[in-house]
C-alpha cells in the first residue's frame, strides 16, 4: 500500500508543481458547493490519477480541487467513496493517506446524515464530537505500515475539541442552528427501519450516516487532526417515519450548505 500511496502522491505533485496544501477537505453528499468559494488553481479528475478510486455516484463529481480558501492553501475532494459502492475500506481511505502525503496538516470532513435526536431537526447542522462505528470492517485491518502510523492508534479525541468549540462559537455568532453530537456509521445503502433508528438512538447516537468514520480512523492513524460536520437531511424519530428520497436529501443539503460553508470558511481562516 505504501508504494501505491507514494506513486499516486508523486503523480499529483507532478501536476500541481510547488503548491503544497495545508488543509484537506472532504465534501459529502450534496455539499460540493464549497468549491465555489475556492480560488481554484488546479483540478484533477480522480479517473486520471493512478490508483485513485472513482466515485460511482452521479451526485459525486470525482475531482481533486487545489486552490486558496480563506487565505489557506487547500485541497478539496469533490466526491467521496463509500463502502456500499463495493470498495474496500483501504480503497475508501486511500485518498486521505495521499492528502497527508501531499502535506495537509488538518482534515475537514462534511456529510449528510439523518437525525436520531428529536431535538435536532431536518436542515440543522451537527458538529461531530464522537462516533460509533457499526460498519463491518476497519481500514486498519491487515499488516500495519509503521511509516503511516502505529499498530494501535489512540482514539480518545478523534475530532479535535478546540476546532469543535471554535465552530460552535462561529455558528452562534452568525445565528446558525448548530448542535454537537455523536455520529453512528452504518453501511447502507438503504436507509434505516424504525426499529433500527430507535436502536441507534438507544446506544448513544444523535445522527446516522454511511461515511466519514473510515476516513477519520485513518486520519487519526496518521496523526491528522479532524473536524467534521453533518447536515441533517432527514429525521429518524417519531411514531411514523416519513419516506425519504435521495432527491429530498439533496434538496435539504443544498439549502443548508451556505450555513455549513460559512462555518468552514471562518474556521479555516482562524485556525
Q: What is the correct CATH architecture? A: 3-Layer(aba) Sandwich
Give the percentage of residues in beta strands.
Answer: 15-25%
* Inertia-based shape: globular
Round the Cα radius of gyration to an integer and report it: 18 Å
Order of helices and strands: HEEEEHEEHEHEHEH
Task: Characterise the protein shown here.
The protein has 271 residues and is of the alpha/beta class. It has one domain (2-270): 3-Layer(aba) Sandwich (Rossmann fold). The chain contains 6 helices and 9 strands. It has helices at residues 2-16, 89-102, 161-173, 194-202, 213-221, 246-270; strands at residues 23-27, 39-45, 63-69, 72-78, 106-115, 125-133, 178-185, 207-209, 226-235. It has a 5-stranded mixed beta barrel with strand order 5-8-7-6-9, surrounded by 4 helices. Helix 4 (194-202) links the parallel strand 7 and strand 8 (207-209). The longest helix has 25 residues, at 246-270. It is globular. The two termini are 32 Å apart. The mean pLDDT is 94.
Please describe the structure with a list of short key phrases separated by commas or semicolons.
5-stranded mixed beta barrel; 9 strands; Purine_phosphorylase-2_CS; 271 residues; 6 helices; alpha/beta; Rossmann fold
Please outline the helices and strands.
Blueprint: H1 2-16, E1 23-27, E2 39-45, E3 63-69, E4 72-78, H2 89-102, E5 106-115, E6 125-133, H3 161-173, E7 178-185, H4 194-202, E8 207-209, H5 213-221, E9 226-235, H6 246-270
Parallel strand pairs: 1-4, 1-5, 5-9, 6-7, 7-8
Antiparallel strand pairs: 2-3, 3-4, 5-8, 6-9
Helix pairs in contact: 1-2, 2-5, 3-6
Amino acid at each position: 500500500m505504501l508504494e501505491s500511496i507514494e506513486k499516486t502522491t508523486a503523480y499529483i505533485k507532478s501536476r500541481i508543481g510547488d503548491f503544497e496544501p495545508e488543509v484537506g477537505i472532504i465534501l459529502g453528499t450534496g455539499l460540493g458547493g464549497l468549491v465555489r468559494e475556492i480560488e481554484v488553481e488546479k483540478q484533477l479528475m480522480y479517473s486520471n490519477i493512478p490508483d485513485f478510486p472513482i466515485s460511482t455516484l452521479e451526485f459525486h463529481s470525482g475531482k481533486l480541487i487545489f486552490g486558496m480558501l480563506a487565505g489557506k492553501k487547500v485541497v478539496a475532494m469533490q466526491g467521496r467513496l463509500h463502502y456500499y459502492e463495493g470498495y474496500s475500506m483501504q480503497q475508501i481511505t486511500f485518498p486521505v493517506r495521499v492528502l497527508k502525503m501531499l502535506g495537509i496538516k488538518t482534515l475537514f470532513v462534511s456529510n449528510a446524515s439523518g437525525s436520531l435526536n428529536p431535538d435536532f431537526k431536518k436542515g440543522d447542522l451537527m458538529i461531530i464530537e464522537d462516533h460509533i462505528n457499526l460498519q463491518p470492517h476497519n481500514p486498519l485491518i491487515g499488516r500495519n505500515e509503521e511509516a503511516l502510523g502505529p499498530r494501535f492508534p489512540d482514539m480518545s479525541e478523534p475530532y479535535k475539541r478546540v476546532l469543535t468549540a471554535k465552530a460552535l462559537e462561529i455558528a452562534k455568532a452568525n445565528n446558525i442552528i448548530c448542535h454537537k453530537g455523536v455520529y453512528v456509521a452504518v453501511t447502507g445503502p438503504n436507509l434505516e427501519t424504525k426499529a433500527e433508528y430507535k436502536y441507534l438512538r438507544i446506544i448513544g447516537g444523535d445522527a446516522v450516516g454511511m461515511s466519514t468514520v473510515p476516513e477519520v480512523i485513518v486520519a487519526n492513524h496518521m496523526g491528522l487532526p479532524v473536524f467534521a460536520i453533518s447536515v441533517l437531511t432527514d429525521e429518524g424519530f417519531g411514531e411514523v417515519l416519513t419516506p425519504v428520497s435521495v432527491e429530498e436529501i439533496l434538496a435539504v443539503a443544498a439549502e443548508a450548505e451556505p450555513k455549513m460553508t460559512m462555518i468552514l470558511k471562518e474556521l479555516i481562516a482562524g485556525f
